[in-house]
């Protein structure tokens, strides 16, 4: 009963390169805006922001804005500033997330909060967030401002909801889906939707692109949450088992808990509460996740949402841009292996 | 050579009540928006936000928006949402400030971060900040959005600059003024300026009200920084000597350091670096601040800026609203005694 994503080119490894090639010239312009607008007379701001912004981010969300604009045949340049605004919002949430999670590694690098301290990370996050709104105001579209201010509020709600659910093994799959739809997929959706606004297309087109982004974002987060249990720091760019140690309730744990016997459930309660979550417990967690098929089925859920993202795209005329967005979904899912 | 504020009613204690009475009906409407828009299905958000928003704030900044609108004879209701947005931005910065400073008391109450933890305070701050922009988008004025997104970026820059200057006794008075103009006065200025936008007055009027707010904000912060060395927790609503213990470089310290002999400067260096800042050192700091006139002259600087705020108001026709804004300046300065 697992969904299968219908790949464009069976047998070939899906790659983010199609989207990178499609959006390369535009992304240059976006990077120019990003570097220009993260400057400040207060030297610590570009220094800290640069650590994260220059430091290995794929610019996935700005590429989605550019790719969606391309699907619509938009040839203007308004979306460069707006894609930069999206990346600033994303960077601000990463800076604050790392403070919230007390993380030490991100994308294989020491985090900003570990290097510069929590206070600077909180405040530079606030700065980038404000800068994002300044960029949107310069563009002048109230519709874009509405979409991105709403997305920002939803992201924060999702993060607080995640905090509330932390260490609570009774979290349901529905609740988990609500949380990741808010904290991750809302910005993917907004990044795609604003392309329809600059291309001056109607709300149906806006909604279709928002759906593509939302489903891609959900798939992306599901895969991330699976990877946390099957990968190592080198592949993943963060510490393996971070979610386990933080007591973060993700779908693999929810499924393993729901499918476990009473002895196994007690193990998860103790582990997620932080009472027993060392190396030996992480190994046992891995065994339980395998024996209950929890990671494999998390990936099946990811394929389901990935397929929905691809099916939304079918409503747009076939084009290299549409193919690149399709392959991006396949890539998001194939990352796990 | 100290400036004297020309009080409206010599011999009478200046009070915030004139502004409170003037703006009471409007403030009711603002409070309604605030309570309505801090709600969220995620229960922790209104709980934590309510701790600060319901908890003894004077709503000074929203009252300034309302008071300035009143000076201009504006009789619409657009400013209610915008004044609520200003209060949300202020509350978000307070939540983040308390995390940055690791504060335990604010307005005489245990701080949100002490009660709910830093992660929740960071994220609920982000939520309120996003909500503020949603409120502005609903109003629909790009001019207001520009003023408040700019102010938000400037506030964050000021906070980071303050962090950079922390424990550095060589901070100059000019640098200190830049920092407080950004971190405190920018939002006072914006709160006043947006009243001119909703009243559809020209940029000269906008600039005059922004100046009034900026000078009032500078005076307000100078007095706060003086109070930190002369008051107790009960009067002040926060712990006395907090700035001293945190190594926060404020004007009293800058003046005492500049005017001190080498022995005294060494004392300040050790104290501000955190190497020697206990009860005995706080007592000696108090003596040095008195012997160098540092607190008294900080108050003189506050009166100078207060007078400039009052002189800007002289450009507007005499009215009960103008009198209330004038008395607010006198009140801001008289708080210290």
TrEMBL record, chains A, B:
Q: Which Pfam families match?
A: polyprenyl_synt
Top enzyme category:
transferase
- What are the names of the required cofactors? Mg(2+)
Q: Which UniProt keywords apply?
A: Magnesium, Metal-binding, Transferase
Keyword Metal-binding present in the record's keywords: the answer is yes
Q: Which SUPFAM superfamilies match?
A: Terpenoid synthases
> Which reaction is the catalytic activity of this chain?
5 isopentenyl diphosphate + (2E,6E)-farnesyl diphosphate = all-trans-octaprenyl diphosphate + 5 diphosphate
What EC numbers are recorded for this enzyme?
A: 2.5.1.90
Instruction: Extract the GO molecular function terms from the UniProt entry.
Output: all-trans-octaprenyl-diphosphate synthase activity; metal ion binding
A Gene Ontology BP annotation from the UniProt entry: isoprenoid biosynthetic process
Instruction: Provide the family line.
Output: Belongs to the FPP/GGPP synthase family.
Record's function text: Supplies octaprenyl diphosphate, the precursor for the side chain of the isoprenoid quinones ubiquinone and menaquinone.
PANTHER family recorded: ALL TRANS-POLYPRENYL-DIPHOSPHATE SYNTHASE PDSS1, GERANYLGERANYL PYROPHOSPHATE SYNTHASE
What is the recorded name of this protein?
Octaprenyl diphosphate synthase
Question: Which species is the source of this protein?
Answer: Sandarakinorhabdus cyanobacteriorum
């Amino acid at each position: 009963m697992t969904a299968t994503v219908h790949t464009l080119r069976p047998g070939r490894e899906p790659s983010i390169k199609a989207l990178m090639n499609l959006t390369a010239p535009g992304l240059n312009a976006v990077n120019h805006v990003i570097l220009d607008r993260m400057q400040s007379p207060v030297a610590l701001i570009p220094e800290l922001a640069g650590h994260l912004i220059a430091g290995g981010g794929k610019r996935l969300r700005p590429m989605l804005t550019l790719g969606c604009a391309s699907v619509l045949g938009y040839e203007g340049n308004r979306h460069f500033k707006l894609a930069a605004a999206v990346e600033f919002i994303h960077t601000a949430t990463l800076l604050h997330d790392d403070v919230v999670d007390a993380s030490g590694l991100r994308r294989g690098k020491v985090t900003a909060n570990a290097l510069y301290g929590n206070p600077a990370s909180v405040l530079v996050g606030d700065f980038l967030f404000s800068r994002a709104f300044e960029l949107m105001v310069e563009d002048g579209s109230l519709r874009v401002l509405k979409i991105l201010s709403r997305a920002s509020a939803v992201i924060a709600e999702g993060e607080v909801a995640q905090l509330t659910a932390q260490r609570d093994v009774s979290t349901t799959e529905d609740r988990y889906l609500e949380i990741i739809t808010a904290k991750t997929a809302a910005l993917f959706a907004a990044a795609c939707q604003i392309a329809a606004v600059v291309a001056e297309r109607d709300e149906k087109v806006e909604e279709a692109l928002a759906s593509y982004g939302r489903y891609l974002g959900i798939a992306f987060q599901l895969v991330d949450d699976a990877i946390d249990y099957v990968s190592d720091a080198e592949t993943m760019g963060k510490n393996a088992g971070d979610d386990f140690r933080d007591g973060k309730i993700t779908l693999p744990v929810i499924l393993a808990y729901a499918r476990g016997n009473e002895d196994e459930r007690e193990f998860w309660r103790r582990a997620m509460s932080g009472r027993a979550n060392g190396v030996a417990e992480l190994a046992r967690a891995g065994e339980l996740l395998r024996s209950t098929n929890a990671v494999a089925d998390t990936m099946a859920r990811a394929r389901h949402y990935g397929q929905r993202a691809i099916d939304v795209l079918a409503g747009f005329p076939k084009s290299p841009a549409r193919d690149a967005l399709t392959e991006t979904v396949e890539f998001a899912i194939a990352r796990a292996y």
